[in-house]
């Protein structure tokens, strides 16, 4: 892994969506409320690494993933690919960026055209980006099927003839067809059975090493993130609250929310997934983000300063950064008893 050169830099990115526009607000001439999906997010992704992005539903991780591939434009801040702001690319550069940074979506059912065979789906990606002369496309399709461990007779079949895990392999093959530098995988396996999840994640891990890919792995399941990531960004209410090498995060988290997420992780069984809550108390509304620490309403260590001053993501040693007033003087949240933080 080369950690010297960031391939992607996220610099102070804020993204808001229009929220509900109540009759009262309309009558009083006020604009719709804004949903603060991302709030001043900064991080770097290094060439050849896998960066896990974790957090509860609604924390902004999927919005960040969509900003990274230009499906959404930030309202403030910039995302740079190899130093260039991706919002200001010229037409030719944009085509190049679209090829070099590929997204694999959560739902393989809706991201594959049901009327196209696998060979047409992969062949289309190869033709659109002029990856191979027409005569070489069948051989390249065969190569890609082998790479994702699908049988050669898959080429003539339609997406509905495959299982969920196989469909994700088709999605991976389509993404790899254009020889990307980076892949953004948004909840890649969350719709799959646990045994199939491991197969698809292991495949992605092997491909990442073999092809020297940069992978941004967005997930709510910490077990998977630990397995695949070199570093992990923990998000809460549109902000990165901890950014850490994976092993350091799992052994000595520096933010109380990371600790709460870790303690909840053993219960992330698929049958209970919707019932697992990482921390007690209500998640503040993204329509009304508190002025101080976003975790203040759920943190058992909250003190006065937390409610008025937003903690910034700052280095905590050992490659870790955290946004917490409590740990800014070197305290390790792993050493802090977190009883009572869980619901
Ligand atoms: Fe808890 Fe305060 Fe740290 Fe926020 S800044 S996580 S409220 S101790």
From TrEMBL:
<dbReference type="GO" id="GO:0005524">
    <property type="term" value="F:ATP binding"/>
</dbReference>
<dbReference type="InterPro" id="IPR013563">
    <property type="entry name" value="Oligopep_ABC_C"/>
</dbReference>
<keyword id="KW-0547">Nucleotide-binding</keyword>
<dbReference type="GO" id="GO:0005886">
    <property type="term" value="C:plasma membrane"/>
</dbReference>
<dbReference type="Pfam" id="PF08352">
    <property type="entry name" value="oligo_HPY"/>
</dbReference>
<protein>
    <submittedName>
        <fullName>ABC transporter ATP-binding protein</fullName>
    </submittedName>
</protein>
<keyword id="KW-0067">ATP-binding</keyword>
<feature type="domain" description="ABC transporter">
    <location>
        <begin position="8"/>
        <end position="262"/>
    </location>
</feature>
<dbReference type="GO" id="GO:0015833">
    <property type="term" value="P:peptide transport"/>
</dbReference>
<dbReference type="GO" id="GO:0016887">
    <property type="term" value="F:ATP hydrolysis activity"/>
</dbReference>
<dbReference type="InterPro" id="IPR027417">
    <property type="entry name" value="P-loop_NTPase"/>
</dbReference>
<dbReference type="InterPro" id="IPR003593">
    <property type="entry name" value="AAA+_ATPase"/>
</dbReference>
<keyword id="KW-0813">Transport</keyword>
<dbReference type="GO" id="GO:0055085">
    <property type="term" value="P:transmembrane transport"/>
</dbReference>
<comment type="similarity">
    <text>Belongs to the ABC transporter superfamily.</text>
</comment>
<dbReference type="InterPro" id="IPR003439">
    <property type="entry name" value="ABC_transporter-like_ATP-bd"/>
</dbReference>
<dbReference type="InterPro" id="IPR050319">
    <property type="entry name" value="ABC_transp_ATP-bind"/>
</dbReference>
<dbReference type="InterPro" id="IPR017871">
    <property type="entry name" value="ABC_transporter-like_CS"/>
</dbReference>
<dbReference type="Pfam" id="PF00005">
    <property type="entry name" value="ABC_tran"/>
</dbReference>
């Amino acid at each position: 892994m080369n950690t010297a050169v960031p391939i992607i830099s996220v610099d102070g990115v804020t993204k808001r969506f229009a929220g509900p526009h109540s009759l009262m607000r309309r009558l009083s001439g006020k604009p719709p409320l804004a949903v603060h999906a991302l709030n001043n997010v900064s991080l770097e992704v290094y060439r050849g690494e896998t960066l896990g992005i974790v957090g509860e539903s609604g924390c902004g991780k999927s919005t960040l993933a969509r900003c990274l591939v230009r499906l959404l434009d930030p309202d403030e801040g910039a995302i740079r690919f190899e130093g260039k702001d991706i919002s200001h690319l010229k037409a030719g550069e944009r085509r190049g960026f679209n090829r070099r940074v590929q997204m694999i979506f959560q739902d393989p059912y809706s991201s594959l055209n049901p009327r196209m065979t696998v060979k047409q789906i992969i062949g289309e990606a190869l033709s659109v980006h002029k990856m191979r002369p027409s005569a070489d496309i069948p051989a390249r399709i065969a190569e890609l099927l082998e790479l994702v461990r699908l049988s050669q007779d898959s080429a003539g079949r339609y997406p509905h003839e495959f299982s969920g895990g196989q469909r994700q392999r088709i999605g991976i093959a389509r993404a790899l067809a254009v020889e990307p530098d980076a892949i953004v995988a948004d909840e890649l396996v969350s719709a799959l059975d646990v045994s199939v999840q491991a197969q698809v994640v292991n495949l992605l891990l092997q491909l990442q090493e073999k092809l020297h890919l940069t992978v941004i792995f967005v997930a709510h399941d910490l077990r998977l993130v630990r397995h695949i990531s070199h570093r992990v960004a923990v998000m809460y209410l549109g902000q990165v609250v901890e950014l850490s090498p994976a092993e350091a995060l799992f052994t000595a988290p520096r933010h109380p929310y990371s600790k709460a997420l870790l303690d909840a992780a053993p219960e992330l069984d698929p049958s209970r997934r919707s019932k697992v809550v990482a921390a007690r108390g209500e998640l503040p509304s993204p329509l009304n983000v508190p002025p101080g620490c976003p975790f203040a309403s759920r943190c058992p260590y909250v003190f006065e300063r937390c409610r008025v001053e937003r903690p910034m993501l700052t280095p905590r040693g050992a490659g870790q950064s955290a946004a917490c007033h409590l740990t800014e003087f070197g305290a390790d949240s792993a050493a802090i008893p977190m009883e009572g933080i869980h619901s």
